[in-house]
Design goal:
The chain is an all-alpha fold. Helices cover about 75% and strands about 0% of the residues. It is built from 24 helices and no strands.
Length: about 475
């Protein structure tokens, strides 16, 4: 059967969603056309492979209209009806999962029943409590404002003037909270993702509006206070905002849902990477604890993907402060989430880095030999470790050969940024000299070499070069 909008949508349904959709179609409230059920039950047998050659349009028609002559127009309408129901089903699924949106719809309908004043009062108290309890809901600020606005409108039309002032203030407060939250969300997108916008003044106007809201430093909503500190950290790179955030995030589970946590931890990661890259070892432990927290709280995974790059970054930070046990445990717990195609190479690469950092270069070399240097997504990083191993094992001939092959690789590979290529070229140049110093042990040349390393800005494995130089100096 050729692909249709219906089969494309149904193929993305989980088995549980297919079952619930079947129940939906079987409900007389939602569907009164029984022939749709017959057609869907036939389609259900092929889920999720609706491209199966055994799935035939005429067979679908026979199931829906037994005894009738095949009519393409009628079949088309049949599939279109099921598709419309599938869209309505998805909307109901979304509503089923959102307590606040469902409550808002209920209250909006209830307010129209003007004779039920006592019941409405009771339901308002229940709704108020729900909003006090559900502050971590994904669309909390938008839903809260919608609720407060509708409540204020009802109170006004019901002539309940003694309550109007408090309810109106509640609406205004929810509007301010919602507006500031969305402004901060936009501003963080501009800062983190370097998003461009057709209106070049848009970013400036958003930042001005945020500064007006926060001019006195009094931000009553804790979520917005955290996001504002994140924005200030990105704007200024001032570490005082980082340490303020560390304190505020001790109670993060009270205020932040998973989506908002990502908005916070992504820029924190960027800040820490910059600090560590600059050589500020005060932040080594901080960077590790960030990755540890994000892995253990599940922030680096969802139903659709696992953040493989974060696993690699965590390995690097764990090695830096020798947190080997936790890192090995985390690799073993998460490696099954890596795509099957790359799983073995990721495992061997990550474990090779750890055993190499422990001093077992031979075992690390055996593991890295299982990584394909031509096709693996880890081909660049694997080369970097191999160079370290060759040097530390005094395999200088292999090291010199890899320097040449690495340079050829960099010239051919168009997927790497020019900045990164330059950082590797700079490393290879000093690495080549390091081998010569290891062999010759000339003190004068080593001093010049140290100057070259310390003055290099864009270079990979700078700390390792410094450590190896220190070892050579002790041998001289």
């Amino acid at each position: 059967m050729k692909k249709t909008k219906l089969t494309e949508l149904l193929s993305a349904f989980s088995n549980q969603e297919i079952k619930r959709f079947k129940n939906y179609l079987n409900s007389d409230y939602f569907n009164t056309k029984k022939h749709l059920i017959s057609a869907f039950e036939y389609l259900e047998d092929f889920h999720p492979d609706y491209g199966n050659e055994k799935l035939d349009e005429e067979d679908i028609f026979k199931k829906a209209y037994p005894g009738k002559k095949y009519n393409y127009a009628l079949l088309k309408n049949l599939l279109s009806d099921i598709y419309e129901h599938s869209k309505n089903f998805m909307a109901s699924e979304e509503l089923r999962q959102s307590k606040l949106s469902a409550k808002n719809m209920f209250m909006n309908n209830l307010y129209k029943k003007t004779t039920l004043r006592d019941l409405i009062r009771k339901e308002i108290k229940i709704a108020d409590q729900l909003y006090a309890d559900e502050t971590l809901a994904p669309l909390y600020f938008d839903d809260r404002y919608s609720y407060e606005k509708s409540k204020c409108s009802y109170i006004s039309h019901a002539n309940q003037y003694e309550e109007y002032n408090d309810v109106f203030n509640g609406e205004v407060k929810s509007f301010i909270d919602m507006t500031l939250f969305n402004l901060l969300d936009y501003a963080l997108c501009f800062e983190i993702l370097t998003v461009s916008y057709e209106n070049t003044t848009f970013k400036d106007e958003i930042n001005k509006a945020i500064d007006i809201f926060c001019s006195d430093g009094n931000i009553p909503n804790k979520v917005n206070k955290i996001l504002y500190s994140v924005l200030q950290l990105l704007r200024t790179n001032d570490e005082k905002y980082y340490f303020e955030l560390v304190e505020m995030l001790k109670d993060e589970d009270k205020y932040l849902n998973p989506d908002t946590k990502l908005k916070v931890y992504q820029p924190l990661e960027v800040f820490l990477v910059k600090k560590v890259k600059s050589g500020d070892n005060r932040f080594y432990r901080h960077q590790f604890e960030l990755y540890k927290h994000c892995f253990e709280s599940g922030l680096y995974e969802n139903e659709n993907f696992f953040a493989e790059a974060k696993l690699l970054a965590a390995v690097e930070t764990a090695i830096r402060i020798r947190e080997f046990d936790w890192m090995e445990k985390t690799i073993n717990e998460n490696i099954h989430k890596v795509s099957e195609k790359n799983r073995d190479e990721y495992y061997n690469f990550c474990m090779a880095k750890i055993v190499q950092a422990k001093g077992d270069n031979k075992k690390a070399l055996d593991m890295l030999n299982k990584v394909n240097l031509d096709t693996s997504p880890l081909k660049t990083m694997a080369r970097n470790i191999l160079l370290k191993i060759y040097f530390e094992m005094s395999y200088f001939e292999q090291a010199k050969t890899m320097i040449d092959t690495y340079r050829h690789f960099l010239r051919r590979d168009s997927g790497l940024s020019e900045e990164y290529k330059d950082s590797v070229y700079n490393f290879l140049k000093l690495y080549n000299k390091l081998i010569d110093f290891k062999i010759d042990k000339d003190p004068e040349k080593i001093r010049d070499f140290e100057y070259d390393i310390n003055s290099a800005d864009n270079i990979i494995l700078k700390q390792w070069l410094i450590e190896m130089t220190d070892k050579i100096k002790k041998e001289v």
